[in-house]
Amino acid sequence: MDPQELLRQVADQLRALTQDAVENLIHQLPELGDEPSATGTVLAGRLLAVHDRLPAGNSLVELVREMLGDLDANSPVRLHGWRRAAGAPLGVALVLTDPSGAAAGRAVLGVTPGGPVFDVVVTSGSALTMPPVVTGPWSAQATIVAPTGWDAAFGPGLPPTPPGGTATIRLQRTGRLAAGMTDGPGISVNGIGLTVTADPATPPAVEIELREITAAILPTALAKLLGVGGADPMADGSGPVSVTVRADRAGGLRFAGNGALRAALPLRLNAPGVRTGDIGLELTSDGDGPRLALSMSVTAGLPGLPLRVFLERAGIDLPVVLSPATPPGIDPRRLRELFPDGIGTELNLPPVSGGGLVRRTPDQGYAGLISIDLGVLQLQAIALFRPPAGSTPTSFLVLLAARFPDPGIELGLGFALDAVGGLVGVNRHVDVTELQQLVCDGNADRVLFPDHAAERAGEIIGSMGAVFPVAPGRLLVGPMVRITWGGRMVSLSGALILELPAPVRAVLVGRLLVGLPDPVLPLIRLQASVLGRIDPAVPVVELLVSLAGSWIVGLAVRGEMYLLVRGGRQPEFVLSAGGFHPRYTRPTGVPALRRLQVDLAPGGGFGLRMEAYFAVTSNAVMFGGQVQLDAMIAGCGVQGWLGLDALFVLDPFAFAVQVRAGVAVRAFGRRLASVGLDFTLEGPAPWHAFGTGSISVLFWDVALDFDVRWGSPPAVAQPSGRDPLGPLRAAIGQARAWAVQRPTAERTALVFTPAAIEKLAKGEIVHPDATLRVSQEVVPLGVPISRFEHRPVPVQHWTIKEVTLGVPRAATDLSSVPERFVPGEFFDLTEDQQLSTPAFVSYAGGVRVGTDATRLGAGHQVDDGYETGYEPPLPTRQFSHWPGHFRHEAVYGLSAAERLERWRTPEAAVRVRPSTLSVVAADNLKPLLDDVSLVNATANAWEAVRERLGDPHAPVELVESWERRA
Description:
Layout: H1 3-28, E1 47-50, H2 59-68, E2 77-82, E3 91-97, E4 106-112, E5 117-122, E6 126-135, E7 138-146, E8 150-154, E9 166-173, E10 177-180, E11 186-189, E12 192-199, E13 202-210, E14 214-216, H3 220-225, E15 243-248, E16 252-255, E17 262-264, E18 274-285, E19 290-301, E20 307-321, E21 329-330, E22 336-338, E23 342-349, E24 352-360, E25 366-373, E26 378-386, E27 395-403, E28 409-412, E29 415-428, H4 432-440, H5 457-467, E30 470-485, E31 490-500, E32 505-516, E33 524-535, E34 540-546, E35 550-552, E36 555-558, E37 560-566, E38 572-577, E39 596-603, E40 606-617, E41 621-633, E42 636-650, E43 653-667, E44 670-683, E45 687-697, E46 700-710, H6 725-733, E47 738-741, H7 754-762, E48 771-775, E49 784-788, E50 791-797, E51 802-805, E52 807-810, E53 815-821, H8 831-836, E54 841-850, H9 896-903, E55 917-921, E56 927-929, H10 940-946, E57 956-960
Antiparallel strand pairs: 1-2, 2-3, 3-4, 4-5, 5-8, 6-7, 7-9, 9-12, 10-11, 11-14, 12-13, 13-15, 15-16, 17-18, 18-19, 19-20, 20-21, 20-22, 20-23, 23-24, 24-25, 25-26, 26-27, 27-29, 28-29, 29-30, 30-31, 31-32, 32-33, 33-34, 33-35, 34-37, 35-36, 36-39, 37-38, 38-40, 39-40, 40-41, 41-42, 42-43, ...
């Protein structure tokens, strides 16, 4: 349920209740004339005369009477007639008038049936204060200020109007209020507070405070079974527990503390052997109206039995009634008990022990967990089941594991087989993003032989549902194994999960755990969570390693390492330990990595943190790190830091190194003095140093920016690269540069003999509908290049001009063949481009040529006869004579070669030449470049065209030549 939707439901019920109340009052009250004291004010003609008292009415009217009294002459709030405009229906209004008279100020809340429509009118210059008015258990007070007046209307179809002043109205009820059964379950509060606020800066809001909550959630029978001794109410020993419900247009109806529909309550059940938790109050709706649910989780031992019982989210559900016949509030007659979301048991009867549970999942499915220790074997089973819903079929996921007793099954050399298991899922798949997050958080054990499964059932089931979500048509199969060494000082767990059918994906999940000297109480704990992925369909190979959850003698060790090798449309190569350069743009799908980090923090205000990273891409090598020192006592002490970020380009050799350092002295949280330096050095030949230095002492700050260059370019220029023509000619001349691609669908009626199929495979003959593909990976086509084999060359532009296959064909009429190229080998890249450019970019490497223009060889006859047989034999057909010319028609025999010519596409009598493209000015379509048709079909072709213009930044358009102006 959404807070906004819940507020709409409550508002609709309140409007209907108000409509009924106003209509009943209008029928009972006489129609009076205008209020004389309203003459000359904004209320003239709208506010009618006062009524002597509030008549009987529905539940809302009686609630107003209970809070404010009969609204008679002794009440500060009076009941008037109301007509919001000339000709409008008659309504009623609650009016608060300044004790000194109406001229000093008046505030009106008018209600008109037919929506209803609420009018808030406050006369100009009003500053009204209503002192606390006590009526039985209720007390009311109000403060309303509107220096320039306030006139606003609220109702269905009316736009929201900001408040024209400030208003605060408080209503309080004292005394104990209870709802539920006398012997439990039930809930009670020791008072209610209602506050309405409005001011021009914030939208109007209503808050309801439930004070000093106590609850008896368990029914009597269940409470006695757990040894509680009846419906013992829960309370908080540290003091009263109160919650506040807030409603406003911006946030909907929710709890004020956390902005959610559920608020945690610090209550507990005072009983021996009983542990409670996850106690909360929740706002829900069942379609008939809002409800207030109180639930908790409880663990208790059954008296006299070696058995413990777990209940998750058991509780009660109370309806909130807003109807004309029933007083607004909670209706205890419609109380219902909430069936637990989860039920579990734990048995401890040596030598057998274990436990299990069944619970509902957020996706309307079910989950179960069983963990049993038989003494000679420990067994675990975790299952998720989701019934069919709409077009989604039934899905389930099962994880089974068996753990052998210490020391496991010996394998030799100190190794032992500690556990085996497997995973099977139907209509499930692997969510790699969720699995990456699980590994980065150091929680891979939730899907790999989880320890203490019964106690961690919630997190284990939640993680398995997130990592292996529902996916129709997918199947998961994965064996698991855990091997230990040295008496479990070293433990290696792994699972290879296959996702079937095609496209097949393989996911490796692993966990390496080292605990020294004792794995039970280790001084050194190193944990490496591993995620590997192989997807041949992309193709991609990915490996992620996280050190989360590691420490050395209490000092935390963190960090992540990552490897990505990806082909296809977005090729990438990334190798990183601890992340990337701060200015590096991570490729798509690469997660943010934590730095390799060690915290040397003995405590007591002293800390030393060291972090580092190293990364390699196809364009650059980068590394860096930082050391930070904190020595603080009671907010006083010294802080210092030293950092480094470096980027290296190998050919031509260049580097950029940034160093930052500083020291600060602080006292009571404020800086007294500091020295800082941020320095960047680029080089060599020429050298470039720039940065900022700063000194600060108390209120005196000095900053110095510097930018220095020295040296000259190297006397010997970098050797130029060789001419690409030679390698390009050699690449085109190789047999692998030429390939024949058979059609995806047969256009002819040919049937090939085994000998022909063998020759087709060897390339000795060509399919009639084949396409000839010529391509190379030496230079990208259609774009200017300034480097070749990492070395500078004169700017040049390579294209395929013409292809002759039977007849000459211009390359502009042919489709291009994309190939992958490393940008750093062919283009001059700036430092930022080296950090952000993908490892591989697609450019044109060749063309495809059809074979329609080829000449056929001499035809030869083949045996294409066939026989037709029927089984069982069909009856003889009877034919009648047809009075046509069938007997006079002739049937000609065709040779195989003639058959082939009949199926071949005939030479077109007229060919449509593709239109050439021109670059024109965007404002007047004046031609700037006549023919810019290029071989390659990538986005980089547009960049190449711009470089041929006089002004590369001029606003231009690419149009067909016939569209340009003469």
